[in-house]
Amino acid sequence: MAGQHLTPPQPRRLSDDERILPLINVVFLLLIFFMVAGRLAASDRFAIEPPNSGSETNPAGQITVLIGTDERLAVEGEMVDAAALSASVSKRLDDGAAKQVRVKADGRVPATRVVAIMERLREAGAEGIDLLTVAGNE
Fold first, then answer.
1. Of 56-65, 77-86, 124-133, which gets the smallest average pLDDT?
2. What's the CA gap between 26 and 22, in Å, rounded?
3. Residue 58 pLDDT more than 50?
4. Residue of 73, 77, 78 lying closest to 121 (CA atoms)
5. Which residues lie below 8 Å from residue 35, measured CB to CB, with a gap of 6+?
6. What is the mean pLDDT of residues 14-25?
7. What percent of the chain has a predicted confidence (pLDDT) above 90?
8. What CA–CA distances, in Å, run from 28 to 14, 20, 103, 121?
9. Residue 113, φ and ψ in degrees, nearest 5
10. 3-class DSSP assignment, residue 129
């Protein structure tokens, strides 16, 4: 074997399919991640279409009351009937430091009903009531 020179084996060239496979794996992992992490905000118990407004506020730490067109009410995502609304809000106001209540009413709910509910919230101990709306197009 004298005089024979061994050359190292040549690396195999990767085909186009083999080179793109890691990229496809990363894309699928990102897709799965965003599908799992994409739903971070809690949804409302029933569909609400708020009325339009020229201003926009959304402070944190307040109690949220939902008013539906079909007489449904929810306090912090928990369905309540009209008779239990004041007690539920009063209990939550007593438990927390905030005395603010956010009202998210469907735009088709009569204004007199919204005002009546806001008066009941005030009687339950709410010091401030914010009516949530959608920013309007100008």
1. 56-65
2. 6
3. no
4. 73
5. none
6. 83
7. 19
8. 22, 13, 41, 48
9. -65, -45
10. strand
Is CATH 3.30.420.270 correct for 52-135? yes
Distance between CA atoms of residues 68 and 114, nearest Å: 10
Taking the domains of the chain in order of start, what are their residue ranges? 52-135
Which residue type occupies 74?
Answer: A
> 29: helix, coil or strand?
helix
Query: What's residue 61's pLDDT?
Result: 60
- Which of 53, 57, 55, 50 minimizes the C-alpha distance to 128? 57
Place of tokens 């919230």: 121
Average pLDDT over residues 106-132: 89
- Mean pLDDT of the 26-44 span: 80
Calculate mean pLDDT across residues 83-88: 88
